[in-house]
Protein: PDZ domain-containing protein
Amino acid sequence: MKKKLLLSVILLQALFYCTGQDKIYVSAFGSDNNKGTFNRPVKTLGEAIVKALRCTGKDVAIEIRGGSYSLDTTIKISSGNFLLHSLDIRAYKNEKVIISGARKIRPDWQPYRNGILKAVLNLVKPPDQFFVDGKALPMARYPNFDATAKVYNGTAADAISNERINTWKNPAGGYIHALHEGEWGSQDYLITGKKENGKLTYTGGWQNNRPAPMHKQYRFVENIFEELDSPGEWFYDYSAKTIYLYPPDGTDIKKSGFTISQLTDLIHIRGSSSKPLKNITISNLSFTGTARSFMLTKEPLLRSDWTIYRGGAILLDGTENVRISNCNFFELGGNAIFVSNYNRYVAIRDNNIYNIGGNAIAFVGDPGAVRSPAFNYNLFVPWPEMDYTPGPKTDNYPRYCLARGNLIHNIGIIEKQVSGVEVSMSSHITISHNTIYNVPRSGINIGDGCWGGDILEYNDVFNTVLETGDHGAFNSWGRDRYWSPDRSAIDSIVAAKPGIESLDVIDPIVIRNNRFQCDHGWDIDLDDGSSNYRIYNNVCLNGGLKLREGYHRIVTNNILINNTFHLHVWLKNSGDVFMHNIVTTPYAPILMNYWGKKIDANLFLSRAGLAKAQSLHLDKNSLSADALFVNSRVGNYQLKAGSPAFRLGFKNFNMNFGVTSPSLKKIAGKPIIKPLYTHTGNHKGASIKWLGATFKNIETLGERSAAGLHDHNGALLEGLPLHSLAEKNNLKKGDIIIRMGDASIKSISDLTDTYQTVKWMGAANCTIIRNQSEMNITVSFK
Structure:
């Protein structure tokens, strides 16, 4: 009898909320005791979802009126309570709706000292982010925030020196942030205290899957009270329940709004492969105000250099036909959108993602779906114990998903091993028409060969690898079942078991019709075993294209501006092909014993490039000539009729790169188009920009005499702007660079050509002439 009565109550509730009603309205001026009608809206998104989930079998839309909605807890939608046919969560008539993980505070600010204010603020736990008028401010830090500094907006070798530590009374709760010693991402540490001998105690460093000591120069500390000494910084003293603020310049403290982060994740949508959540749409909303997640970034991703945190502003796990479109994601502490484990036909379209601490979009499967997985660069499953079955073991991974038309920039504010779009243990992911820039590492990253079928097309990816090194605007690893750091071991296992190299990357990965530009690496970087790629119709603006050891890479019809083809440690019988491409500078091979299936029919923009290739017994049928670009000065690399490249099999291709939404196109940045190096260097008065300074050739006896030179060789620094990277390297006006690494610099052409081959290292030893004397310096490229 009680069961029947309970069922009747549930049915009456469902009818009460759903009969004749397929919309539920939310307003900041509503009440959660209301029904959710237009005239009687509910107050919170959480309550609207509770009401929506009672509407069994219906198509329900939650329409949110304009305003800011602060979440107290992460909204969780699971397969256990989702009985709708579809759910659409959207802004009402495109009104401005903000979903925030931060809550408002109203501090009673009182003077403290030296321009610093303080207020009593009784919190259960210390806040991770503090916002003034919606913008996150830096914690009290050393060195102070410097908008002109490339790495972390300011670093210092003495950040955790004994002398500095001695000035801190109680640093527990502070953080150390540092680049990996090899500049392969970052590592973060929580300070737990200070020993009697003055040394710090701390925990962390797990944010990189190839851990190493922290970088000696690129490091900083934050959340330490004694470092509160610069406008914009803040500190919360948990023991005294007091917040301190050094107000940013120009801030009206009486009119400003203050919020503190309280959530790392905003919305979780969780189902499973057996019971996926289907047909959910989230559109025209803004998401902001989450706490940073760098100390939660622990889970290793196979043998890539990554660890991850499976969370973000929106987490999808076990879904089908979910769409996230026309949303804004900004001022987030961690990831924006994380697509985890089983997901099918997820579409992430036309979103604006910027000023966030982690990844913009990540597609990451379950390691349990991988056959014979290894989780560290130096870990290997013995060949006799290997599972030789092709493909995945389960279906618990993203497949047939889409990231299209998204504007992504200024990400990885704290976490540096991040990407605009990350793909790992997934397959058939389409990444199309995205504009991605101002990122510390790659714009698009594929972390392993599991399981291929991805298509990358019409993306515009630039200003990448800004804070790290040895990476690419597009980067991939292929440390799959067949792979070993020992090339001879790979050769032997592939010879013994043909096809083992394709067990994981079972379908080709296609990279076509993109524009890439990298600052401290390669425009396209296929690293460590990346295999089964088809790369064609791409424009590489700056860093060239690199293929490290791997199999079955077909590279055709690409344009490599101001750089070249980087061939690194190829394998025996790789099957690699490089044909019908346009190349600016000579090839840059490293430790090559084998040259693949075919390298030929390419057009070199310099005679030296062709000559070097042919000296290696390559490019028998290639040519050296002007490509006849329509207008290389503005980045139009279409070829005019009569271009010699056409005779070699090159074909013009569609160069419609980046976002397509009119509103996003208006605000999207564009890469800087540099003059062709073949057009630079030998005419009188020629100059180049390098490290923000201007260099020219030695042209007159007066220039030789002033420097004490015996010849005209070298690149003369004639213009040195304040705050330029050249100035930060302590270069001086009048310096002449005569050597970089092992290469002689006889002209500005040599300077640019040599720089393109070494910039991935992040720095180089240079010999300069200053005050008529030689001296050696190390020049940092960032």
Observations:
- The chain has ten helices and 63 strands.
- Residues 62 and 89 are 5 Å apart (CA to CA).
